[in-house]
Amino acid sequence: MSTFAPPVQRLITELGKLPGIGGRTAQRLAFHLLRASEEDALALADAIREVKSRIGLCEVCFNLADGPRCRICSDERRDAAVVCVVEEPSDIIPIERTHEFHGRYHVLGGALSPIDGVDPEDLRIAELYRRVTGEPEEGRDPIREVVLATNPTTTGEATALHIAEQLREKAPQVTVTRLASGLPVGADLEYADELTLGRALAGRRALS
Amino acid sequence: MRVVRLSLRNFRSYESADVELGAGLTVVTGRNGAGKTNLLDALYFGCTGRSARTTNDRELVRFGQKVTRVEVETEADDGPHRLSVGFEAGQPKRLTADGVRVERLLDVPGRPLVSVFLPDRLELVKGTPSLRRAHVDQVVAALWPARTTTRRGYAQALAQRNALLTRVRDGAVSPTSLAAWDRELARHGIALMADRAAAIDAVAERFGAIAADLGLDGDPRVAYRPRSKATDADGLVAELEERRTSDLERGFSGHGPHRDDLALTRDGRELRAYGSQGQQRLALLALLLAEREAIAATRDAVPVMLLDDVMSELDRERRGRLVELLRGVGQSVVTTTDLEHVPGGDGADVRRLRVEDGEVRADDLREQP
Q1: Which tens digits make up the pLDDT trace of B287-321?
Q2: Is B32 annotated as a binding residue?
């Protein structure tokens, strides 16, 4: 039996479905919204509605987009010859923050995980091959390099290995690279975890 | 790092006990069935959160009681630590380290390594390879704590590959991504094989000498028996490819380090099949002692050795040799029905405990002439 009127309970239930929000936090948020001015509360509702109705996926790279193409794919200054492959749209944000990457992206929508029933067909891998092997759009360079930036987890590594192998076959002219694993910059060696440090050691380079 | 004190409430045959351990050797005497083994198991339980004898924790609660609790106080370089394990039937175990609740005791500060010799553990010599693999992986973890991630990575990749094999077999997906999983499995697999080989290498050189010391004749040896002959990831990938058809038929991976074994031999013949019970026991004891030496030589942590009733089957000379080994380094707890069976057991550096009527008392040797 619920203590609250059904509409309040419904709001709490819906908020509780959000990641990282437990029952108590959901309740707190619900009461906050109840106390808030109508204007503020409805602004949130509108924002949710707008995002769901206007934001779709970019037809080229499957990043989030408010039109047929995302901002990066519509930006003519970006290098169309280099494509960085990521698992989720949220993975683009940290890479963009570096200002080091001037190419474009391709969002897979996840990583291979047979246990969860995620196979190559469930990801936007075929679309990537089409993009790499197809004719470039007018005035743009053909794709020269694919950077695999899937997560360094078992599923992310297998996904990268799968794509790399298929690309070698389908597009041997394209260079396939993988993000390096190693030490965080500015960090103390003594605080590095063993796995990261182990990878960093395995991938060490001669100082020229 | 050493265990200073053990306290238990309603653990197996005990209502309660508070026991101080010696810095080196502790000898627990008592008649058969007095509860000597239970005391060792309590120490194991308090240090690891698991029983050395049963996977059914309900058996650990004293008959007629609901809750059992074991506390272990340790002394490490950085000061004292306190571990506790509480169990109530039907509830998740409550593990704490220095008063803070933890998921597992495996990686908390102040947790001593423990190595235990119980009659039940003979399965390690006689039983299925999976027990020996798990044991080798524990030795790897004790020698190089950071390398536990290798085994976890391998297990994850194996589970994924097996899931994929089943899905391909059932026609749910095409096998195109199998090659990627072969490679991912091989990467972890080669690392796991290297870890196991290195661990057994460190143990093997010591095993022969200790086994001979304890009276196991016939050139006793311990050797790693990897399933794969591969020396690098490419080699393992090739082996996996060769077996792909049969893997697909069965829906699981039939090849790789998850099929490895550890061989204990005497004159080239496996003790598992050809050894007598006595030889198997000596081999197990030698293996545990060799591992302890290897761990002591690699890092600043000597496992606390728990030995249940080993003296009865050794002759006087071998008993003396074992006690010498135990007194040499680290902490150990030995149970016996008769203090006479532990040469030097009346020494000033030895802590003596007596188990009687469900209680543990310090034995100050008053009755000795």
Answers
A1: 999 999 999 999 878 899 999 989 887 888 889 99
A2: yes
- Cα of first residue to Cα of last residue in chain A, in angstroms, is 71
Helices (H), A55-116: 71-74, 92-98
pLDDT tens digits, B96-118: 999 999 988 877 877 899 999 99
The contact set of B with A (CB < 8 A) is: 145-147, 149, 153, 156-157, 159-161, 163-164, 167, 172-174, 176-177, 179-181, 183-184, 187-188
CATH topology of domain A77-178: Dna Topoisomerase Vi A Subunit; Chain: A, domain 2 (3.40.1360)
Give B-chain residues touching A112 at CB under 8 angstroms. 160, 177, 180-181
Pick the CATH number of B1-113+303-369 from 3.30.70.20, 3.40.50.300, 3.40.50.720, 3.30.1120.10: 3.40.50.300
Q: Is B29 helix (H, G, I), strand (E, B) or coil?
A: strand
Question: What stretch(es) of chain A map to CATH 1.10.8.420?
Answer: 6-54
E strands along chain A, which residues? 56-57, 64-65, 82-86, 104-107, 145-148, 175-178
- In A14-112, the DSSP E strands lie at 56-57, 64-65, 82-86, 104-107
Closest CB to B184: pick one of A120, A161, A195. A161
Q: Is residue B245 a known part of a binding site?
A: no
Domain A6-54 coded CATH 1.10.8.420: yes
A162:B176 CB<8 A: yes
Query: What is this model's ipTM?
Result: 0.72
Q: Give just the sign of the alpha carbon dihedral A31, A34, A40, A44.
A: positive
